[in-house]
Amino acid sequence: MTIKTDLEKVFSIKNIYFYITKLQQFNYIIIMRKLGLLLVTLVFGAGVYAQNGPKIEFKTETIDYGTVTKGEDNGVRFFEFTNTGDAPLIISKVNSSCGCTVPSYPKDPIMPGKTGQIEVKYNMNPGPINKTVTVESNAVNKQSGRVPLRIKGTVTKTETDSKASVLEKKKTLPQS
Question: What is the pLDDT of residue 163?
């Protein structure tokens, strides 16, 4: 009889109700924790998007020269950008990945809503083009204010360059 009475105590309506309410309270706590975490995430996420300061947006971050012929193309291209922020944008430095690419940039601040250009001149050496130009600025929407720009394509020799190099090789061959 003691087992039956113990089971009756455990499975009584009162005890079942007690455990169900505790379980509901526990689920309520878990749900509230999840909602609190979601709220914190939304607040911090909104802070990232509500950054004040200069912002730089390029029309394109890659320029494809395509296949160009040396001597027929001067190698100059322009990266256009806009300051979409609410403060003057200052470009402090522009570096190229090698000496064959020469960038130039505006030294004056770019006011909010205004546009500017980064000029890139490639020396047009025959072969593939795959170079990077890194723009450093005070932009708050890019990591450390840096934006990597790329140029790519292929430079081919002109027919006269090809014939001249063959003739030069024939002239330099030793006479026997």
Answer: 55
